Amino acid sequence: MRILAIDDESEILQLMEKALRGQYQVDTVQFPVQTIPEDISVYDLIITDVTMPEVSGYDLLVQIRETVDCPIIFLSAKALEEDVVYGLSIGADDYIRKPFSIAELRARIAAHIRRDNRETVGNVIKDGQILIYPKESILKVNGNPVELTKSEFDIVTLLFKNKGQIFSKGQIYELIYGFDKDGDESAITEHIKNLRRKLKQFGVEPIETVWGVGYKWKKQM
Questions:
Q1: 216 Cβ contact list (under 8 Å, min separation 6)
Q2: How are the residues of the chain apportioned to helix, strand and coil, as percentages rounded to the nearest 5?
Q3: Angle, CA of 47, 48 and 54, to the nearest 5°
Q4: CB 3.0 to 4.6 Å from 177: which of 64, 109, 111, 205, for a disulfide?
Q5: pLDDT at 136
Q6: How large is the angle between the packed helices 102-117 and 169-177, nearest 10 degrees?
Q7: CA separation for the pair 197, 50 (Å, rounded)
Q8: For the chain, what is the total number of helices (H) and then of strands (E)?
Q9: pLDDT at residue 97 above 70?
Q10: Number of Cβ atoms within 10 Å of the Cβ of 209
């Protein structure tokens, strides 16, 4: 497994490289001093700082998201909820606040890689106008593909396969990421909001909020 770590602080890069060495192949880039690899699509996971000189992690994600589909994790000392919400809304899969523990970093990475490599059975599942192709990680509405991040696709698939069942934010987080000790459940709220916005563009609104409980999938006609 290859991981790319991007930060403007060499000490942080050295810490991550040392912590992950032996378990993963870790390449580090002190950005913007060094150049981002042209073959960035070869990586299985990317970790990038948010606050960097000249180009922010947000801007960097927008630049690379079209060429990579691996999980992308933000690192940031910014602890405001709107920062987390914005990062997730532009395509990040997770957000780790600095300072972070090595145990948390390893757990988050392992969860994302495990989720990314998880095998899914079945060729296609259908509900009305909505079709999901689990093996290809594709969702279509009336034949039109809907662009989703990996986290969004896993959440919509979980709800889709369990029509009518209510899941709390905590349950969704644990089922998707595999752990919940240090998880930020607000990420699920933002992913759900993004999913609704993207699906509504195609005229479907299958995700229902059960107030005070969680979310469920409404069967389509």
A1: 159, 163, 164, 165, 166, 167, 207, 208, 210
A2: 40, 25, 40
A3: 165
A4: 111
A5: 85
A6: 80
A7: 25
A8: 7, 11
A9: yes
A10: 13
**What is the tens place of the pLDDT at every residue in 142-196?**
889 999 998 999 999 999 988 888 999 988 988 888 765 556 778 899 999 999 9
At which residue do the structure tokens 């192709």 appear? Answer: 133
* Distance of alpha carbon 121 from alpha carbon 196, whole angstroms: 25
pLDDT tens-digit readout, 42-60: 898 999 999 998 889 999 9
Domains of the chain, each with CATH number or no CATH: 2-117 (3.40.50.2300), 125-217 (1.10.10.10)
Distance CA 153, CA 138 (A): 8
Q: CA 54, 57, 26 angle in degrees (round to 5)?
A: 110
Given this model, what pLDDT does residue 120 score?
42
* Residue type at 90 in one-letter notation: I
| Residue 75 CA to its chain's centroid (Å) | 13
Q: Write out pLDDT tens, residues 107-136.
A: 999 888 877 665 444 568 888 889 998 888
Phi, psi angle pair for 178, to nearest 5°? 90, 0
Residue closest to 73 by CA, chosen among 102, 42, 105: 105
